[in-house]
Amino acid sequence: MSSHTRMNLSAGIASASVALVLVALKLWALGGTSALSVAASLADSAMDLMVSLGGLVAMIYAARPADEDHHFGHTSAEDFAALGQSIFVMIAAGAIGYAAVGRLLSDAPTELANEGRGMVAMALSIVLTLALVTWQRFVSKRTGSRVVAADSLHYVGDLLPAVGAILSLWASRAFGLHSIDSFVAIAAAIMLAFGAVSIFKGAFDALMDRSADPETIAGIGALVAGFPGVHGFHDLKTRTAGSVTFVNLHIELDGRQSLDDAHAIGAALRRAILTEFPGTDVLIHKDPVGVEPHPDDPSR
């Protein structure tokens, strides 16, 4: 196992472990406070736990070679898992938002309790999250793992609901403003819903073989166009599956050179793409410069 794989796995284990601790902390805080803002942050941490476990499994699978039944690997399992996670989060966001509106409209508003306990739990969750993000960013810079980088970005977004929960608990304790908790919960539920929609769209696009983002496609094209020995390229096609981007393209080479020379150029180009764009799977077809499609070739 390479050092980069070990570092990625360490980041995945740390992410899942921190998420589990955060879920336990926030359950403890919710049991004492009955604060919906804490419930929203708890739902977000529960999603983090599922995403972190899914990312850890994905990294373990990524270290294994493709088998006879799955020549392109098992990375699409990440997308199926993400669809399920996004649906769960949308349901949780709807339930939290519904409960918050119900509290605001109720003639007998629910009073919060043990606000200090809740604030301590949420403060601890912020400290743990910041420590995890620091380690994840270090690992992603060293290894180039997009899974670790995406997980880190997600945890950064979790800090705002946690801060909002602390503010609502403080306002309740200091000024008796219990209704602020419901407003914070509604805002957090909206953030959860938007995040869930984004995850759902990304997973759905991957399952439908959507092409990679325009920046990646443009970057690959620029690399190929300026590569020594390559006189042109066409039919650059990409698709994503989980954390892997599959790249197919045709390059145009001098037809008078030997097969060995042509192979060397194609192999060097493939290595360059894999280095510049980690997490890609590259297949290159070689054409002589100026070759015309055969009339019997099927159109695509």
3D architecture notes:
The protein has 300 residues and is mainly alpha-helical. The protein folds into two domains: 205 residues, Up-down Bundle (Alpha-lytic protease prodomain-like); 75 residues, Alpha-Beta Plaits (2-Layer Sandwich), CATH 3.30.70. The chain is 69% helix and 10% strand. The protein is built from eight helices and three strands, in the order H-H-H-H-H-H-H-E-E-H-E. The protein has a three-stranded mixed β-sheet. The longest helix has 31 residues.
Quick one: CATH superfamily of the largest domain?
Answer: Cation efflux protein transmembrane domain
Largest sheet: 3 strands, mixed
> Between the first and last Cα atoms, what is the distance in angstroms?
41 Å
Helix % is 55-70%
How are strands sequenced across the largest beta sheet? 1-2-3
Choose one word for the global shape.
elongated
Strand portion: 5-15%
Write a concise keyword list for the protein shown above.
single chain; 300 residues; mainly alpha; Alpha-lytic protease prodomain-like; Alpha-Beta Plaits; 2 domains; three-stranded mixed β-sheet
How are the SSEs placed, and which strands pair?
Blueprint: H1 3-33, H2 36-62, H3 76-105, H4 115-143, H5 146-175, H6 179-207, H7 214-225, E1 232-241, E2 244-253, H8 259-276, E3 280-288
Parallel strand pairs: 2-3
Antiparallel strand pairs: 1-2
Helix pairs in contact: 1-2, 1-4, 2-3, 2-5, 2-6, 3-6, 4-5, 5-6
Summarize the structure.
The protein has 8 helices and 3 strands, in the order H-H-H-H-H-H-H-E-E-H-E. With 300 residues, it is mainly α.
